Model the fold of this input.
Amino acid sequence: MKQICSPAIVYVFLFSIFALAQESKPTNPMPFQACRDQAAKFCADQKTPRDILKCLIKNDKVISTACKQELERYGRATSQANEQGGGALSAMAGLNSQTPPFPVLAVEGRLSPGTPKMNEEKINLSSPIYQDEDDYFALSAAGAPVHFSDPVTLNSGIEVPKDLYRAELGAQYTHKLPGFKNWGLRGSIGSASDQLFKNFKDNSFSINAQYGFPTETGGFWMLFLYISNNSPLGNFVPIPGVMYLYKTPTFTGMFGFPILSMQWTPEKLWSYSFSMFGPAITAEAGYGDMADIQYITNLSWSTQSFILSNRTDDKDRLTIDEKKASIGLKSFLYEKVLAEVKIGRAIGRSIYIGDGIRNMKRGSQSLDDEGFLALTLKTGF
Done:
């Protein structure tokens, strides 16, 4: 498929939950209120969300600011969900939201020259396999090594391996029902350990089931059930959830348990967001046009969980916990690749082993505060 050579490629990454709110009229498959008139004006001959999106991308120079802002709000919500914690937690936070309607590749690198030095890389690839007006099926693959320059020894005497890895394959399916309802399944299987796929019991998996339905007032409810053997809230503990989606011309909010997400674009160049997915929190402010350059300030609290091959109890998980503050910018390279650069400081860092979030029965160790530099590149095909 031809690469999209336009700054509007950003909408590839912003359009990823168009199936959440199907309160739109049957004659219009565009669920974003502010983009409906734009779709009718510039893309009247397109029938599916995928084709409408491609058409809007082609006309990115002339679509309305309101449409761009609404897409940005949805994109921020999904982006923060997918960034939180990695692995299983992302599946829960993503709420079975659809990946963009064509292949997307994202590569991220982080350098923290502290003591010990910590380097981290991530690569994610997602692609739809089949889609029509009612059904959507997609596959994804991800890898993420974490490297410490020196071993970390916990207060219990356990030495944490210098190299940790994550590799996962995922699939998702969404089906639209009459009355703008929908249901979906999203699952992943992989390994998050110091030795990938060494033993079957060291592998990780997650599954998330979801059902959504609109309200008479134009809102949207979603019910879901999530389970994973590598969840920060407890392994194999089913996590039921509920969420309500509320929108205004400048605000999008998702309110529920264990999820809270708010996106606000009060003016053309300003945007704000706050998201909480279980133990993970992200707040961000941005200034600038997403089709050009946007300056960002970000605060976050995130965790990563790993299943060590050599552990005392099968339920034990290694967790890396840290808070980060950063500033940066987003722009384009050669009008094809969305680049994001951030520089900041990680504080309140710790690493521990136990069964569940903040369970440190097998030992813990605080890590020094340190600066970091992060680079993310995304492109669509």
